[in-house]
Specification:
Elements: H1 6-19, E1 24-27, H2 44-49, E2 57-61, E3 65-69, H3 74-80, E4 87-90, H4 99-106, E5 112-115, H5 122-133, E6 138-140, E7 162-163, H6 173-186, E8 191-194, H7 197-204, E9 206-207, E10 220-224, E11 229-232, H8 240-248, E12 251-254, H9 259-264, E13 270-273, H10 280-285, E14 291-294, H11 298-304, H12 308-337, H13 344-356, E15 361-364, E16 369-372, E17 395-401, E18 403-405, E19 408-409, E20 412-418, H14 423-440, E21 443-445, H15 454-462, E22 473-475, E23 484-489, E24 506-509, E25 512-515, E26 519-522, E27 525-531, E28 542-547, H16 565-582, H17 588-597
Keywords: Aminopeptidase, Hydrolase, Metal-binding, Protease
Family: Belongs to the peptidase M24B family.
Pfam families: Creatinase_N, Creatinase_N_2, Peptidase_M24, Peptidase_M24_C
Protein backbone atom coordinates (compact mmCIF):
# COMPACT_ATOMS: atom_id res chain seq x y z
CA UNK A 1 0.00 0.00 0.00
CA UNK A 2 1.12 3.52 -0.76
CA UNK A 3 2.22 5.25 2.43
CA UNK A 4 2.02 9.03 2.18
CA UNK A 5 1.32 11.47 4.96
CA UNK A 6 -1.70 13.72 4.72
CA UNK A 7 0.65 16.66 4.35
CA UNK A 8 2.35 15.02 1.34
CA UNK A 9 -1.02 14.25 -0.27
CA UNK A 10 -2.09 17.88 0.15
CA UNK A 11 1.22 19.05 -1.28
CA UNK A 12 0.84 16.94 -4.41
CA UNK A 13 -2.78 18.02 -4.87
CA UNK A 14 -1.78 21.67 -4.59
CA UNK A 15 0.94 21.16 -7.19
CA UNK A 16 -1.69 19.90 -9.64
CA UNK A 17 -3.98 22.78 -8.78
CA UNK A 18 -1.17 25.24 -9.47
CA UNK A 19 -0.35 23.60 -12.80
CA UNK A 20 -3.98 23.85 -13.93
CA UNK A 21 -4.54 27.35 -12.42
CA UNK A 22 -7.16 26.09 -9.95
CA UNK A 23 -7.71 28.21 -6.83
CA UNK A 24 -9.88 25.76 -4.84
CA UNK A 25 -10.61 22.05 -5.16
CA UNK A 26 -13.70 20.38 -3.68
CA UNK A 27 -13.72 16.72 -2.64
CA UNK A 28 -17.18 15.38 -1.89
CA UNK A 29 -18.28 12.26 -0.04
CA UNK A 30 -19.92 10.84 -3.14
CA UNK A 31 -19.67 8.60 -6.17
CA UNK A 32 -21.39 8.72 -9.60
CA UNK A 33 -24.53 7.30 -7.94
CA UNK A 34 -24.71 9.83 -5.07
CA UNK A 35 -24.53 6.93 -2.62
CA UNK A 36 -24.36 7.24 1.16
CA UNK A 37 -21.93 4.33 1.54
CA UNK A 38 -19.12 4.32 -1.01
CA UNK A 39 -16.90 1.70 -2.64
CA UNK A 40 -13.27 2.21 -1.59
CA UNK A 41 -12.48 3.59 -5.03
CA UNK A 42 -14.63 6.64 -4.30
CA UNK A 43 -13.55 7.27 -0.71
CA UNK A 44 -11.25 10.15 -1.75
CA UNK A 45 -12.17 12.39 1.17
CA UNK A 46 -11.32 9.65 3.69
CA UNK A 47 -8.03 8.90 1.93
CA UNK A 48 -6.94 12.51 1.75
CA UNK A 49 -8.09 13.79 5.15
CA UNK A 50 -8.09 10.79 7.49
CA UNK A 51 -11.64 11.64 8.64
CA UNK A 52 -13.66 8.41 8.52
CA UNK A 53 -17.19 9.74 9.07
CA UNK A 54 -19.70 8.87 6.36
CA UNK A 55 -20.43 12.51 5.40
CA UNK A 56 -18.17 15.51 4.92
CA UNK A 57 -16.91 17.96 2.29
CA UNK A 58 -13.22 18.79 1.92
CA UNK A 59 -12.05 22.06 0.33
CA UNK A 60 -8.40 22.69 -0.50
CA UNK A 61 -6.80 26.01 -1.47
CA UNK A 62 -3.12 26.89 -1.64
CA UNK A 63 -3.35 28.53 1.78
CA UNK A 64 -5.92 26.46 3.66
CA UNK A 65 -7.71 23.12 3.92
CA UNK A 66 -11.11 22.73 5.59
CA UNK A 67 -13.54 19.89 6.31
CA UNK A 68 -17.26 20.70 6.60
CA UNK A 69 -19.31 18.31 8.76
CA UNK A 70 -22.59 18.59 10.66
CA UNK A 71 -23.10 18.28 14.41
CA UNK A 72 -23.09 14.47 14.40
CA UNK A 73 -19.38 14.49 13.53
CA UNK A 74 -17.89 17.56 15.20
CA UNK A 75 -16.19 15.69 18.05
CA UNK A 76 -15.00 12.86 15.80
CA UNK A 77 -13.64 15.24 13.17
CA UNK A 78 -11.85 17.34 15.77
CA UNK A 79 -10.11 14.21 17.05
CA UNK A 80 -9.17 12.79 13.65
CA UNK A 81 -7.95 16.10 12.18
CA UNK A 82 -5.88 17.04 15.23
CA UNK A 83 -2.49 16.07 13.73
CA UNK A 84 -3.20 17.65 10.33
CA UNK A 85 -3.45 21.16 8.93
CA UNK A 86 -7.06 20.52 7.92
CA UNK A 87 -9.44 22.68 9.94
CA UNK A 88 -12.85 21.59 11.19
CA UNK A 89 -15.65 23.72 9.73
CA UNK A 90 -18.88 23.29 11.67
CA UNK A 91 -21.84 22.92 9.36
CA UNK A 92 -25.11 24.13 10.90
CA UNK A 93 -28.54 25.13 9.65
CA UNK A 94 -27.20 28.64 8.98
CA UNK A 95 -26.65 29.36 5.25
CA UNK A 96 -23.29 31.04 5.88
CA UNK A 97 -21.86 27.85 7.47
CA UNK A 98 -21.58 25.93 4.18
CA UNK A 99 -18.44 25.33 2.14
CA UNK A 100 -20.02 27.28 -0.73
CA UNK A 101 -20.50 30.35 1.48
CA UNK A 102 -16.86 30.03 2.59
CA UNK A 103 -15.66 29.86 -1.03
CA UNK A 104 -17.67 32.96 -1.95
CA UNK A 105 -16.18 34.83 1.01
CA UNK A 106 -12.55 33.78 0.55
CA UNK A 107 -12.10 33.62 -3.23
CA UNK A 108 -11.66 36.55 -5.59
CA UNK A 109 -13.37 37.48 -8.83
CA UNK A 110 -12.16 35.33 -11.77
CA UNK A 111 -10.84 32.61 -9.44
CA UNK A 112 -11.54 29.00 -10.48
CA UNK A 113 -13.10 26.24 -8.38
CA UNK A 114 -12.81 22.65 -9.59
CA UNK A 115 -14.22 19.25 -8.65
CA UNK A 116 -14.82 15.84 -10.17
CA UNK A 117 -18.16 16.23 -11.96
CA UNK A 118 -18.86 12.51 -11.66
CA UNK A 119 -19.38 12.99 -7.91
CA UNK A 120 -21.39 16.22 -8.08
CA UNK A 121 -25.16 16.01 -8.46
CA UNK A 122 -27.06 18.34 -10.76
CA UNK A 123 -28.66 20.02 -7.76
CA UNK A 124 -25.28 20.58 -6.09
CA UNK A 125 -23.84 21.96 -9.31
CA UNK A 126 -26.71 24.41 -9.69
CA UNK A 127 -26.28 25.69 -6.14
CA UNK A 128 -22.51 25.95 -6.54
CA UNK A 129 -22.48 27.66 -9.93
CA UNK A 130 -25.20 30.17 -9.03
CA UNK A 131 -23.60 31.32 -5.79
CA UNK A 132 -20.08 31.39 -7.22
CA UNK A 133 -21.41 33.17 -10.30
CA UNK A 134 -22.61 36.11 -8.21
CA UNK A 135 -18.93 36.84 -7.54
CA UNK A 136 -17.82 35.85 -11.07
CA UNK A 137 -16.00 32.78 -9.81
CA UNK A 138 -16.03 29.97 -12.39
CA UNK A 139 -16.58 26.27 -11.72
CA UNK A 140 -14.86 23.47 -13.63
CA UNK A 141 -16.34 20.02 -13.18
CA UNK A 142 -14.11 17.68 -15.19
CA UNK A 143 -11.06 17.68 -12.94
CA UNK A 144 -9.99 14.41 -11.30
CA UNK A 145 -6.88 15.42 -9.38
CA UNK A 146 -7.11 12.45 -7.03
CA UNK A 147 -6.24 9.50 -9.30
CA UNK A 148 -2.78 10.86 -10.28
CA UNK A 149 -1.90 11.12 -6.57
CA UNK A 150 -3.62 7.97 -5.28
CA UNK A 151 -1.30 5.53 -7.06
CA UNK A 152 -2.80 2.40 -5.49
CA UNK A 153 -6.40 3.56 -5.71
CA UNK A 154 -8.69 0.51 -5.44
CA UNK A 155 -10.45 -0.58 -8.60
CA UNK A 156 -14.23 -0.62 -8.87
CA UNK A 157 -15.80 -3.75 -7.33
CA UNK A 158 -17.15 -6.39 -9.70
CA UNK A 159 -18.89 -8.86 -7.41
CA UNK A 160 -21.61 -11.02 -8.99
CA UNK A 161 -25.23 -9.95 -8.57
CA UNK A 162 -28.06 -12.24 -7.54
CA UNK A 163 -31.75 -12.42 -8.34
CA UNK A 164 -33.91 -12.30 -5.23
CA UNK A 165 -35.67 -15.48 -4.19
CA UNK A 166 -39.06 -16.12 -5.73
CA UNK A 167 -41.94 -14.97 -3.54
CA UNK A 168 -40.15 -12.12 -1.78
CA UNK A 169 -41.18 -9.33 -4.15
CA UNK A 170 -44.80 -8.30 -4.64
CA UNK A 171 -44.14 -7.18 -8.24
CA UNK A 172 -41.97 -8.69 -10.97
CA UNK A 173 -39.27 -6.49 -12.50
CA UNK A 174 -41.34 -6.15 -15.67
CA UNK A 175 -44.28 -4.89 -13.60
CA UNK A 176 -42.02 -2.38 -11.84
CA UNK A 177 -40.54 -1.16 -15.13
CA UNK A 178 -44.10 -0.88 -16.46
CA UNK A 179 -45.01 1.30 -13.46
CA UNK A 180 -42.20 3.69 -14.40
CA UNK A 181 -43.04 3.73 -18.12
CA UNK A 182 -46.71 4.40 -17.35
CA UNK A 183 -45.66 7.34 -15.20
CA UNK A 184 -43.51 8.67 -18.05
CA UNK A 185 -46.37 8.31 -20.52
CA UNK A 186 -48.78 10.07 -18.18
CA UNK A 187 -46.35 12.95 -17.71
CA UNK A 188 -45.50 13.14 -21.47
CA UNK A 189 -41.83 12.30 -20.82
CA UNK A 190 -39.80 10.20 -23.28
CA UNK A 191 -37.24 8.55 -21.03
CA UNK A 192 -35.78 8.26 -17.54
CA UNK A 193 -32.11 7.91 -16.53
CA UNK A 194 -31.43 6.40 -13.09
CA UNK A 195 -28.13 6.30 -11.22
CA UNK A 196 -29.25 5.60 -7.62
CA UNK A 197 -28.24 2.04 -6.82
CA UNK A 198 -31.11 1.12 -4.51
CA UNK A 199 -33.66 2.21 -7.13
CA UNK A 200 -31.94 0.02 -9.72
CA UNK A 201 -31.72 -2.98 -7.38
CA UNK A 202 -35.40 -2.56 -6.45
CA UNK A 203 -36.56 -2.22 -10.06
CA UNK A 204 -34.66 -5.32 -11.21
CA UNK A 205 -35.44 -7.46 -8.13
CA UNK A 206 -31.71 -8.12 -7.79
CA UNK A 207 -29.17 -7.58 -5.04
CA UNK A 208 -25.38 -7.22 -5.01
CA UNK A 209 -22.25 -6.85 -2.90
CA UNK A 210 -20.47 -3.83 -4.34
CA UNK A 211 -21.15 -1.46 -1.44
CA UNK A 212 -20.52 -2.35 2.19
CA UNK A 213 -23.75 -2.80 4.22
CA UNK A 214 -26.02 -2.01 1.24
CA UNK A 215 -26.91 -5.03 -0.95
CA UNK A 216 -26.59 -3.11 -4.21
CA UNK A 217 -24.43 -3.21 -7.35
CA UNK A 218 -22.78 -0.54 -9.50
CA UNK A 219 -24.95 0.22 -12.51
CA UNK A 220 -26.96 2.88 -14.34
CA UNK A 221 -30.37 2.29 -15.93
CA UNK A 222 -32.37 3.89 -18.72
CA UNK A 223 -36.13 3.29 -19.18
CA UNK A 224 -38.14 4.70 -22.08
CA UNK A 225 -41.85 5.50 -21.97
CA UNK A 226 -42.35 2.35 -24.03
CA UNK A 227 -40.67 0.23 -21.36
CA UNK A 228 -37.45 -0.27 -23.36
CA UNK A 229 -34.74 -0.76 -20.73
CA UNK A 230 -30.95 -0.51 -20.90
CA UNK A 231 -28.73 -1.57 -18.01
CA UNK A 232 -25.17 -0.21 -17.86
CA UNK A 233 -23.09 -2.70 -15.89
CA UNK A 234 -19.87 -4.70 -15.98
CA UNK A 235 -21.28 -7.74 -17.77
CA UNK A 236 -19.00 -10.21 -15.98
CA UNK A 237 -20.99 -9.44 -12.81
CA UNK A 238 -24.11 -11.11 -14.23
CA UNK A 239 -24.45 -14.93 -13.99
CA UNK A 240 -25.53 -16.62 -17.22
CA UNK A 241 -28.94 -17.57 -15.86
CA UNK A 242 -29.63 -13.93 -14.96
CA UNK A 243 -28.42 -12.76 -18.38
CA UNK A 244 -30.98 -15.06 -19.95
CA UNK A 245 -33.69 -13.73 -17.62
CA UNK A 246 -32.77 -10.14 -18.54
CA UNK A 247 -32.86 -11.07 -22.24
CA UNK A 248 -36.30 -12.62 -21.78
CA UNK A 249 -37.48 -9.41 -20.11
CA UNK A 250 -36.00 -7.36 -23.01
CA UNK A 251 -33.42 -5.61 -20.81
CA UNK A 252 -30.45 -4.58 -22.95
CA UNK A 253 -26.94 -4.74 -21.48
CA UNK A 254 -24.21 -2.18 -22.18
CA UNK A 255 -20.82 -1.67 -20.46
CA UNK A 256 -20.89 0.37 -17.25
CA UNK A 257 -18.58 3.00 -18.78
CA UNK A 258 -20.87 3.57 -21.78
CA UNK A 259 -23.61 5.44 -19.92
CA UNK A 260 -22.28 8.86 -20.90
CA UNK A 261 -21.86 7.94 -24.58
CA UNK A 262 -25.37 6.46 -24.63
CA UNK A 263 -26.88 9.67 -23.28
CA UNK A 264 -24.87 11.77 -25.75
CA UNK A 265 -26.47 9.91 -28.69
CA UNK A 266 -30.00 9.76 -27.35
CA UNK A 267 -32.84 11.06 -29.50
CA UNK A 268 -35.52 11.25 -26.81
CA UNK A 269 -36.51 14.88 -26.31
CA UNK A 270 -37.71 14.96 -22.70
CA UNK A 271 -35.66 13.08 -20.09
CA UNK A 272 -36.56 12.68 -16.42
CA UNK A 273 -33.69 12.73 -13.94
CA UNK A 274 -33.57 13.11 -10.17
CA UNK A 275 -31.39 16.22 -9.67
CA UNK A 276 -30.17 14.89 -6.33
CA UNK A 277 -29.28 11.44 -7.66
CA UNK A 278 -27.71 12.04 -11.09
CA UNK A 279 -24.28 13.59 -11.65
CA UNK A 280 -23.69 16.77 -13.61
CA UNK A 281 -21.34 14.67 -15.77
CA UNK A 282 -24.31 12.61 -17.01
CA UNK A 283 -26.60 15.61 -17.41
CA UNK A 284 -24.05 17.49 -19.50
CA UNK A 285 -23.58 14.39 -21.66
CA UNK A 286 -27.14 14.83 -23.00
CA UNK A 287 -27.61 16.60 -26.37
CA UNK A 288 -28.31 20.32 -26.01
CA UNK A 289 -31.76 19.89 -27.55
CA UNK A 290 -32.82 17.54 -24.76
CA UNK A 291 -35.23 18.95 -22.18
CA UNK A 292 -34.32 17.75 -18.69
CA UNK A 293 -37.28 17.21 -16.35
CA UNK A 294 -36.05 17.45 -12.77
CA UNK A 295 -38.16 15.27 -10.50
CA UNK A 296 -37.77 12.60 -7.84
CA UNK A 297 -37.24 9.13 -9.32
CA UNK A 298 -40.74 7.60 -9.56
CA UNK A 299 -39.27 4.32 -8.28
CA UNK A 300 -38.19 6.07 -5.08
CA UNK A 301 -41.85 6.70 -4.25
CA UNK A 302 -42.93 3.25 -5.37
CA UNK A 303 -40.37 1.33 -3.28
CA UNK A 304 -40.98 3.43 -0.17
CA UNK A 305 -44.51 2.02 0.07
CA UNK A 306 -44.16 -1.63 1.04
CA UNK A 307 -46.90 -4.06 0.11
CA UNK A 308 -48.65 -6.13 2.82
CA UNK A 309 -46.73 -9.22 1.68
CA UNK A 310 -43.40 -7.38 1.88
CA UNK A 311 -44.26 -6.10 5.36
CA UNK A 312 -45.00 -9.67 6.38
CA UNK A 313 -41.52 -10.71 5.19
CA UNK A 314 -40.05 -7.81 7.17
CA UNK A 315 -41.92 -8.97 10.29
CA UNK A 316 -40.26 -12.36 9.84
CA UNK A 317 -36.83 -10.69 9.60
CA UNK A 318 -37.64 -8.73 12.76
CA UNK A 319 -38.56 -11.96 14.55
CA UNK A 320 -35.20 -13.48 13.66
CA UNK A 321 -33.45 -10.30 14.74
CA UNK A 322 -35.33 -10.31 18.05
CA UNK A 323 -34.28 -13.91 18.71
CA UNK A 324 -30.63 -13.06 18.00
CA UNK A 325 -30.77 -9.95 20.19
CA UNK A 326 -32.31 -11.91 23.08
CA UNK A 327 -29.36 -14.29 22.98
CA UNK A 328 -26.92 -11.39 22.71
CA UNK A 329 -28.32 -9.31 25.59
CA UNK A 330 -28.65 -12.43 27.72
CA UNK A 331 -24.97 -13.15 27.11
CA UNK A 332 -24.01 -9.52 27.81
CA UNK A 333 -25.85 -9.47 31.14
CA UNK A 334 -24.19 -12.71 32.30
CA UNK A 335 -20.76 -11.61 31.05
CA UNK A 336 -20.95 -8.35 32.99
CA UNK A 337 -22.08 -10.16 36.15
CA UNK A 338 -19.14 -12.54 35.79
CA UNK A 339 -16.78 -9.58 35.28
CA UNK A 340 -15.60 -10.86 31.92
CA UNK A 341 -13.33 -8.57 29.90
CA UNK A 342 -15.62 -6.88 27.39
CA UNK A 343 -14.74 -4.08 25.02
CA UNK A 344 -16.76 -2.14 22.47
CA UNK A 345 -15.15 -4.38 19.84
CA UNK A 346 -16.45 -7.44 21.69
CA UNK A 347 -19.99 -6.05 21.47
CA UNK A 348 -19.69 -5.75 17.69
CA UNK A 349 -18.29 -9.27 17.32
CA UNK A 350 -20.89 -10.92 19.55
CA UNK A 351 -23.98 -9.18 18.19
CA UNK A 352 -22.94 -10.06 14.64
CA UNK A 353 -22.18 -13.67 15.62
CA UNK A 354 -25.63 -14.19 17.14
CA UNK A 355 -27.34 -12.69 14.09
CA UNK A 356 -25.24 -14.86 11.78
CA UNK A 357 -26.90 -17.94 13.30
CA UNK A 358 -30.28 -16.86 11.96
CA UNK A 359 -31.55 -18.16 8.63
CA UNK A 360 -31.09 -15.81 5.70
CA UNK A 361 -28.54 -13.54 7.41
CA UNK A 362 -26.42 -11.65 4.87
CA UNK A 363 -24.47 -9.17 7.00
CA UNK A 364 -24.71 -5.96 8.99
CA UNK A 365 -26.89 -3.16 7.58
CA UNK A 366 -24.38 -0.56 8.82
CA UNK A 367 -21.29 -0.40 11.02
CA UNK A 368 -22.25 -1.33 14.58
CA UNK A 369 -22.08 1.58 17.01
CA UNK A 370 -21.10 0.36 20.46
CA UNK A 371 -20.22 3.41 22.54
CA UNK A 372 -19.56 3.34 26.27
CA UNK A 373 -19.99 6.57 28.26
CA UNK A 374 -18.26 9.43 26.36
CA UNK A 375 -18.08 7.39 23.15
CA UNK A 376 -21.86 7.01 23.21
CA UNK A 377 -22.13 10.79 22.95
CA UNK A 378 -20.82 10.53 19.36
CA UNK A 379 -23.91 9.61 17.31
CA UNK A 380 -21.85 7.94 14.56
CA UNK A 381 -19.02 6.58 16.70
CA UNK A 382 -17.29 3.37 15.64
CA UNK A 383 -14.76 1.51 17.77
CA UNK A 384 -11.55 0.51 15.99
CA UNK A 385 -8.55 -1.63 16.89
CA UNK A 386 -6.64 1.60 17.45
CA UNK A 387 -9.26 3.32 19.58
CA UNK A 388 -11.89 1.64 21.74
CA UNK A 389 -13.06 1.45 25.35
CA UNK A 390 -13.59 -1.42 27.77
CA UNK A 391 -17.01 -1.88 29.37
CA UNK A 392 -16.19 -1.49 33.04
CA UNK A 393 -17.12 0.58 36.08
CA UNK A 394 -20.34 2.59 35.95
CA UNK A 395 -22.00 4.17 32.97
CA UNK A 396 -24.20 3.75 29.93
CA UNK A 397 -23.50 1.54 26.92
CA UNK A 398 -25.23 2.60 23.69
CA UNK A 399 -25.58 -0.11 21.04
CA UNK A 400 -26.91 0.83 17.60
CA UNK A 401 -26.85 -2.08 15.16
CA UNK A 402 -28.71 -3.69 12.30
CA UNK A 403 -28.77 -6.62 9.94
CA UNK A 404 -29.48 -7.50 6.35
CA UNK A 405 -31.55 -10.67 5.92
CA UNK A 406 -32.82 -11.96 2.61
CA UNK A 407 -36.31 -10.97 3.73
CA UNK A 408 -35.74 -7.66 5.51
CA UNK A 409 -33.48 -4.95 6.88
CA UNK A 410 -33.25 -4.15 10.60
CA UNK A 411 -31.98 -1.21 12.65
CA UNK A 412 -32.23 -0.93 16.44
CA UNK A 413 -30.67 1.07 19.26
CA UNK A 414 -30.73 0.13 22.94
CA UNK A 415 -28.95 1.56 25.99
CA UNK A 416 -27.66 -0.77 28.70
CA UNK A 417 -26.72 0.46 32.21
CA UNK A 418 -23.32 -0.74 33.39
CA UNK A 419 -22.92 -0.79 37.16
CA UNK A 420 -25.09 1.83 38.83
CA UNK A 421 -26.55 4.63 36.68
CA UNK A 422 -26.69 8.11 38.22
CA UNK A 423 -29.89 10.06 38.80
CA UNK A 424 -28.95 12.42 35.95
CA UNK A 425 -28.43 9.49 33.58
CA UNK A 426 -31.81 8.06 34.58
CA UNK A 427 -33.42 11.46 34.04
CA UNK A 428 -31.92 11.77 30.54
CA UNK A 429 -32.82 8.19 29.67
CA UNK A 430 -36.44 8.71 30.73
CA UNK A 431 -36.76 11.89 28.68
CA UNK A 432 -35.54 10.03 25.58
CA UNK A 433 -37.98 7.21 26.30
CA UNK A 434 -40.82 9.74 26.63
CA UNK A 435 -39.80 11.19 23.26
CA UNK A 436 -39.77 7.72 21.71
CA UNK A 437 -43.23 6.93 23.09
CA UNK A 438 -44.62 10.29 21.99
CA UNK A 439 -43.82 9.56 18.35
CA UNK A 440 -44.82 5.89 18.63
CA UNK A 441 -48.31 6.94 19.77
CA UNK A 442 -48.81 9.56 17.06
CA UNK A 443 -51.88 9.50 14.83
CA UNK A 444 -51.78 11.76 11.78
CA UNK A 445 -53.49 12.36 8.42
CA UNK A 446 -52.53 10.37 5.35
CA UNK A 447 -50.25 12.51 3.18
CA UNK A 448 -48.83 14.59 6.04
CA UNK A 449 -45.20 15.54 5.30
CA UNK A 450 -43.01 13.42 7.58
CA UNK A 451 -40.84 16.34 8.83
CA UNK A 452 -43.89 17.79 10.60
CA UNK A 453 -43.95 14.79 12.93
CA UNK A 454 -40.51 15.59 14.32
CA UNK A 455 -41.72 18.14 16.86
CA UNK A 456 -43.96 15.50 18.46
CA UNK A 457 -40.93 13.41 19.37
CA UNK A 458 -38.81 16.34 20.52
CA UNK A 459 -41.44 17.91 22.78
CA UNK A 460 -40.41 16.13 26.05
CA UNK A 461 -36.81 17.24 25.44
CA UNK A 462 -37.66 20.74 24.29
CA UNK A 463 -39.68 21.30 27.45
CA UNK A 464 -36.41 20.99 29.38
CA UNK A 465 -34.51 23.02 26.73
CA UNK A 466 -32.72 19.94 25.42
CA UNK A 467 -32.32 18.70 21.86
CA UNK A 468 -30.35 16.41 19.51
CA UNK A 469 -28.62 17.20 16.22
CA UNK A 470 -29.96 14.44 14.00
CA UNK A 471 -33.32 13.47 12.55
CA UNK A 472 -35.75 11.43 14.60
CA UNK A 473 -36.49 8.95 11.81
CA UNK A 474 -35.28 7.79 8.41
CA UNK A 475 -36.93 5.54 5.86
CA UNK A 476 -35.77 1.91 5.66
CA UNK A 477 -35.69 -0.33 2.59
CA UNK A 478 -37.02 -3.85 2.08
CA UNK A 479 -33.89 -6.03 2.19
CA UNK A 480 -32.16 -2.94 0.82
CA UNK A 481 -30.60 0.29 2.12
CA UNK A 482 -31.03 0.96 5.83
CA UNK A 483 -31.40 4.66 4.96
CA UNK A 484 -34.05 5.16 2.30
CA UNK A 485 -36.02 8.15 1.09
CA UNK A 486 -37.98 10.08 0.27
CA UNK A 487 -39.65 10.50 3.68
CA UNK A 488 -37.71 11.56 6.76
CA UNK A 489 -38.93 12.49 10.24
CA UNK A 490 -36.59 15.42 10.61
CA UNK A 491 -37.20 19.15 10.72
CA UNK A 492 -34.02 19.48 8.63
CA UNK A 493 -35.84 17.77 5.73
CA UNK A 494 -38.00 19.63 3.19
CA UNK A 495 -41.75 19.79 3.67
CA UNK A 496 -43.23 18.89 0.28
CA UNK A 497 -45.14 16.21 -1.62
CA UNK A 498 -42.05 13.99 -1.79
CA UNK A 499 -41.81 13.63 1.98
CA UNK A 500 -45.49 12.80 2.51
CA UNK A 501 -46.43 9.76 4.62
CA UNK A 502 -48.54 6.92 3.22
CA UNK A 503 -49.59 3.45 4.32
CA UNK A 504 -46.78 0.90 4.11
CA UNK A 505 -43.84 3.27 4.62
CA UNK A 506 -41.25 2.14 7.17
CA UNK A 507 -39.27 4.58 9.31
CA UNK A 508 -37.07 4.53 12.36
CA UNK A 509 -38.11 6.14 15.65
CA UNK A 510 -34.83 7.17 17.30
CA UNK A 511 -34.75 10.29 19.47
CA UNK A 512 -31.58 10.79 21.49
CA UNK A 513 -29.72 12.95 23.97
CA UNK A 514 -25.95 13.40 24.06
CA UNK A 515 -23.78 14.85 26.83
CA UNK A 516 -20.40 15.54 25.22
CA UNK A 517 -17.61 13.77 27.05
CA UNK A 518 -20.06 11.96 29.35
CA UNK A 519 -22.69 9.69 27.77
CA UNK A 520 -25.14 9.25 24.93
CA UNK A 521 -28.69 7.88 24.89
CA UNK A 522 -30.78 6.78 21.91
CA UNK A 523 -33.76 4.42 21.78
CA UNK A 524 -34.71 3.14 18.34
CA UNK A 525 -37.40 0.92 16.87
CA UNK A 526 -38.54 0.51 13.29
CA UNK A 527 -42.18 1.39 12.68
CA UNK A 528 -44.55 1.03 9.72
CA UNK A 529 -47.43 3.32 8.73
CA UNK A 530 -50.79 1.59 9.04
CA UNK A 531 -54.27 2.93 8.33
CA UNK A 532 -56.38 3.64 11.39
CA UNK A 533 -59.29 1.17 11.06
CA UNK A 534 -63.05 1.85 10.79
CA UNK A 535 -62.97 3.50 7.39
CA UNK A 536 -62.89 7.09 6.22
CA UNK A 537 -63.94 9.65 8.80
CA UNK A 538 -65.20 13.17 8.30
CA UNK A 539 -61.65 14.53 8.06
CA UNK A 540 -60.20 11.81 5.85
CA UNK A 541 -57.99 8.79 6.55
CA UNK A 542 -55.44 8.72 9.34
CA UNK A 543 -52.30 6.67 9.99
CA UNK A 544 -50.74 5.18 13.08
CA UNK A 545 -47.39 3.47 13.70
CA UNK A 546 -47.11 -0.29 14.13
CA UNK A 547 -43.91 -1.33 15.92
CA UNK A 548 -41.86 -3.84 13.95
CA UNK A 549 -38.82 -4.17 16.22
CA UNK A 550 -38.98 -6.98 18.78
CA UNK A 551 -36.60 -6.32 21.66
CA UNK A 552 -37.17 -5.15 25.26
CA UNK A 553 -36.38 -1.56 26.18
CA UNK A 554 -34.31 -1.45 29.37
CA UNK A 555 -36.43 -0.44 32.38
CA UNK A 556 -33.78 -0.23 35.12
CA UNK A 557 -32.74 3.24 33.87
CA UNK A 558 -36.24 4.65 34.00
CA UNK A 559 -37.11 7.42 36.48
CA UNK A 560 -40.63 6.09 36.84
CA UNK A 561 -42.24 9.15 38.35
CA UNK A 562 -41.51 11.02 35.10
CA UNK A 563 -43.68 8.64 33.06
CA UNK A 564 -47.41 9.20 32.77
CA UNK A 565 -49.87 6.35 33.23
CA UNK A 566 -50.42 6.31 29.48
CA UNK A 567 -46.67 6.09 28.79
CA UNK A 568 -46.29 3.20 31.24
CA UNK A 569 -49.20 1.45 29.55
CA UNK A 570 -47.58 1.87 26.14
CA UNK A 571 -44.32 0.35 27.41
CA UNK A 572 -46.10 -2.55 29.10
CA UNK A 573 -48.15 -3.27 25.99
CA UNK A 574 -45.03 -3.18 23.81
CA UNK A 575 -43.19 -5.56 26.13
CA UNK A 576 -46.17 -7.91 26.19
CA UNK A 577 -46.08 -8.04 22.38
CA UNK A 578 -42.33 -8.68 22.39
CA UNK A 579 -42.67 -11.48 24.93
CA UNK A 580 -45.59 -13.13 23.12
CA UNK A 581 -43.80 -13.21 19.77
CA UNK A 582 -40.30 -14.19 20.94
CA UNK A 583 -40.94 -16.55 23.84
CA UNK A 584 -41.86 -19.64 21.75
CA UNK A 585 -38.48 -19.40 19.99
CA UNK A 586 -36.26 -19.11 23.08
CA UNK A 587 -35.02 -21.37 25.83
CA UNK A 588 -32.51 -21.35 28.66
CA UNK A 589 -30.76 -18.11 29.58
CA UNK A 590 -32.24 -16.18 26.65
CA UNK A 591 -35.78 -17.16 27.65
CA UNK A 592 -35.16 -16.19 31.26
CA UNK A 593 -33.68 -12.86 30.16
CA UNK A 594 -36.68 -12.09 27.96
CA UNK A 595 -39.20 -12.86 30.71
CA UNK A 596 -37.36 -10.71 33.24
CA UNK A 597 -36.92 -7.79 30.87
CA UNK A 598 -40.53 -7.70 29.66
CA UNK A 599 -42.12 -7.52 33.11
CA UNK A 600 -44.68 -4.75 33.51
CA UNK A 601 -43.68 -1.61 35.36
Amino acid sequence: MQNMSIQEKLKQLRQQMQTHHINAYIILSADPHMSEYLPEHWQSRVWLSGFTGSVGTLVITQEEAGLWVDGRYWVQAEQQLRQTEIKLKKLTAEPDSTHIAWLVEHLKQDDIVATDGRTLSLNQYQQLSVKLGHKKISCQIAKDFISPIWKDRPTLPKFPIDEMQSGLNHFTRLEKIQQVSQYLTHEHIDGHFISSLDDIAWLLNCRGQDVEYNPVFLAHLYISKYGETTLFIHEEKIPQSLKEAFLKDKINLLPYEDSGNFLAQITDKKILIDPNKVSIYHVQALPQATQVIEELNPSTRFKAIKSPSEIEHIRHAMLKDGIALSHFFSWLERAMKNREVISELTIDEKITAYRAKEEGFIGASFATIAGFNANGALPHYRATEEQFSYIQGNGLLLIDSGAQYIDGTTDITRVVPVGTPTDEQKHDYTLVLKSHIALAQAIFPVGLPAPLLDSIARQPLWQEKLNFRHGTGHGVGFALNVHEGPHSISYYAPVNKNTAMFEGMITSNEPGLYREGLWGIRIENLIVNQLVPHGTQEYGDFLYFENLTLCPINTTCIQRDLLTTQEKQWLNTYHEQVRTKLLPHLSGHAKDWLIENTEAI
